[in-house]
Amino acid sequence: MSGIAKLALADGTVFTGLSFGATGEIFGEVVFNTSMTGYQEILTDPSYCGQIVTMTYPLIGNYGVNKEDVESKGLSLSGFIVKELCRTPSNFRSDQSLDDYLKDNNVIGLEGIDTRALVRKIRTVGAMTGVLSTEDLDDASLVNKAQNSPELVGRDLVKEVMPSEANEWTECLTELGLPMDLILEDHSIDVPLHVVAIDYGMKWNIPRHLSQTGCKVTVVPGTATAEEILALDPDGVFLSNGPGDPRPLDYAINTIRELLGKKPIFGICLGHQLLGLATGAEIYKLKFGHRGANQPVRNESSAKIEITSQNHGFALNAETMPADVEVTHINLNDNTVAGIRHKNVAAFGVQYHPEASAGPHDSHYLFRQFIDSMKAASPAP
Predict the structure, then answer these.
(1) What is the CA radius of gyration of the chain?
(2) Which of 312, 355, 361, 364 is catalytic?
(3) Rounded CA separation 295/332 (Å)
(4) Were 347 and a residue from 122, 265, 294, 374 both cysteine, which residue would form a disulfide, CB within 3.0 to 4.6 Å?
(5) What is the pTM (predicted TM-score) of this model?
(6) pLDDT, tens digit, for every residue of 105-133?
């Protein structure tokens, strides 16, 4: 049975709706995602740790959830907000409803508020801290809590979601998750290449893609040192996505700096930002970030436009890019940096998700680019 729930923002705004999922009280940075589908990918993406996610599409939950489409071992986001929750999902792959899924994973849901008004508020004022509660329903009390809760900036959230130890990854993509280029062409490799994937909160579809192309994948925690990584004798190093502000992650930045020029490197999202910081670029917080599966990006070398899936609240500052690093991709919504490449060593990164499920798959070529860089760097058999 649904009860009353409230969301209070740090600027004093309060929204009242109905609860679903778990009960309780949490705080987090309130953000929005413009995807029409893929909510299970969003829910299980560790990059949302410390955030309350609002979906702009009005009806969420219509195809339920299933055991195949998870991107991590659990749900890391703080809360989930929708305009209308579908309580009667219909899909042949559905295992349970979204309501039950959030209950099982102890995540509070809020429905029935004006999500358009909330999103307009975030776009105008910027992403801010909020408190979501099914217990304390006093507006003044909730606003006070929101104003005194920790902000996302400056916190190390990676240590909350990364694995505790190294492990081998063997799972490939599901039949429904195969991009068309992998279906139509043989992208397997003759001699397996060994990729060490540094997990800062990695979505599982990334190692699935690498395994699908024949790579041996070893996943290591985000705190792994360059010495520990090189001891595994990889052909290349992958830098994963992850949550929060990259600037406090000195341990990751130092490791990447030591690896530059020693092994080919490919970074996605947080990994891209950390790569930029390791080369000497600076980073800044976006007003409300880019989150959705319809973000247009221009490839500067080909002038082709890619539709991409994105989830980040920080961006590299193009004006601080060192001379030996070039910008390879631009976000066409606001001209922010969406991709970089080191001119002198094999290292590149993108500020979006080429592995996204349910898509789009426009940028899947980046995995082939990474494989080609490892082949070029590996000695001939």
Answers:
(1) 20
(2) 355
(3) 8
(4) 265
(5) 0.95
(6) 999 999 999 999 999 999 999 999 999 99
